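From: lab user (bench 3)
To: helpdesk
Subject: output format question, protein + zinc ion

Hello, I'm new to running complex predictions and I'm not sure whether the block I got back is the full result or only part of it. Here's what I submitted:
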Amino acid sequence: MSIPKGQTISVKVIDLVNVSGVPNKSTYAPPVEGVEIFPASPSLCFLLEHNSGRRLLFDLGVAFNSSKLGEKLQKDLANFGWKVEVKEDLAVFLDKNGVPPDSIEAKSNSFASHTHWDHKGDISTFPPSTDLIVGPNTVAKFVHGDGNGPYGGITLDDMQGRTLREVKCDIKVGPFPAMDYFGDGSLYILDSPGHDHGHICALARTTSNPDTFVLFGGDAAHHGSELRPTKHLPMPKSIVPNPQTGLMHPPLCPGDWFRDTNQKRGLDPEGPLYRPSFAIASMEHTLQTIEKIQEMDGNESVLCLLAHDPSVRHKSMPLFPESLNDWKSKGLRKFLDWSWVGDVWNELERNLAMPKST
Ligand SMILES: [Zn+2]
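Helpdesk reply: Thanks, we reran it on our side. This is the complete output you should expect:
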């Protein structure tokens, strides 16, 4: 994996949203008997603080004022059985915690990674000095084209007095076309199309000597079960600590069940449990983007965090105001990489008579 040398940037994770009641089949395929409901999940925001004092956000979560979601979306969510809880708007949370919204230079992702309701937050709560940063070819689609719909988009309100910027990804970082945002290697915006038009991920350098990174995956995938295992990161024979209990013993050993389940569903027995069940822009590009993230995920110096991955709620995960930068020396991946297996196992045990693992 080729990543140029560079500076570091501070990363803080903010979890203000809880989405529950989401049926698995609405997001993943092919189905697994007994796994019906996706575990309650966040819609994460990341505060990035550069050495120069410049601040950025990657993703804004969900608007606290639910009327901002629009009538159709609110009705659809109720009909689907989704429950969306928002503690407060991100701008309000930051202001209360010593980060005035006018100190934020730009927000990225959703307006680029995608403009969906569960990522674009309520931009009107930020001052016009906060730019919108959008992914490649997004302005043509959303501002001058037909990209806006009930699930998101860039509205006139979003743009009111605000600068809209589109990233240009003209260098290569790992397998991704990328942009070196600060020009010093601390933050790369990654062109990662598929889930929605102009979807972007980002790669922040969390330490140097040795280099470590956090990859913000947005909605390139939604759960660890779409990313792992792979040839880059095979499933261990036994998962320790046990992702159901957090205890070192007994370990969880999903081996035979996992391989059989994948084989019966026509999937690679050594590959991930699920594929995404939908893509708004392109399924082909979505799968290509997932393969690229899997390649990065195979590098033990990269921590991949998806916007809705419930694994980030593990008790060892440092949340704002703590910094995430020393994730590697804390051994965080040991707790997060396979925690998705615990989500699946809990659901199976709830719905089927599953043998207890030994
Ligand atoms: Zn989302």
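A quick orientation on your result: Residues 6 and 185 are 4 Å apart (CA to CA). Let us know if anything else is unclear.
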